[in-house]
Structures are given as C-alpha cells and as structure tokens.
From TrEMBL:
Residues 79-98 are annotated as: Disordered. Residues 7-74 form the Transcriptional regulator SbtR-like C-terminal domain. It holds the Pfam family TetR_C_43. This is Transcriptional regulator SbtR-like C-terminal domain-containing protein. Coiled coil: none annotated. Residues 89-98 have a biased composition (Acidic residues). InterPro entries: Tet_transcr_reg_TetR-rel_C_sf (IPR036271), TetR_SbtR-like_C (IPR049445).
Length: 98
C-alpha cells in the first residue's frame, strides 16, 4: 500500500490515496475527541496499518501482528481513547463505535 501511494501508475494508487485520506480524517476526529495522541499524523497511521497488514500476511506471523496491533493501539490511545477500547472476552482489542 505504501508503494502504491508513491507510484501513480499503480492500479492501487487511487484506492490507497483515498484510504489514507479517510484514515487521516478519522484520526483527526479521534484527536479532536482527545482519544488519540496529538503527535500522530495520517501518514504515520497509514504506514503503521500497512506494516501490520503486511506482517499479518507473512507465514507464521499472524500472532505477532495481532500482538503488535494491540501494542500500537495501546500506544496511540489516550486516556479517553483507552477507555473506549480494551480487551474483549476473546482477547481481541475492541474499539467502541463513535
């Protein structure tokens, strides 16, 4: 996904640009609600999500990707955001709809 953003001729370019923009808007809304750290930008979020998606697709790395997702989420969420997310009964991180 990161490469597709940088390559306008890529078949995925437009979709990835739209995804990055949507993520940046959602991030800004979460930051306005003091749910996510203010020092994160849309590019940071896009690269983190892309890296976690790539890792999850690698043989034998799904559990590591899940653990790192939880680590990243815990790091990004502030006090009010952390109250909205958490460990569910199934061990998955849940994020409240807003």
């Amino acid at each position: 996904m990161v490469r597709a953003i940088e390559e306008p001729e890529s078949a995925l370019h437009d979709s990835c640009v739209a995804l990055k923009a949507a993520g940046a808007r959602l991030l800004a809304d979460a930051q306005s609600a003091d749910a996510v750290r203010a020092d994160v930008d849309g590019a940071d979020l896009f690269v983190l999500v892309s890296a976690l998606a790539w890792l999850g697709d690698q043989p034998g790395q799904k559990a590591r990707a899940d653990r790192l997702f939880d680590l990243v989420l815990t790091t990004l969420l502030t006090g009010s955001g952390a109250a909205a997310g958490g460990d569910g009964a199934d061990g998955e991180t849940e994020v409240a709809d807003g």
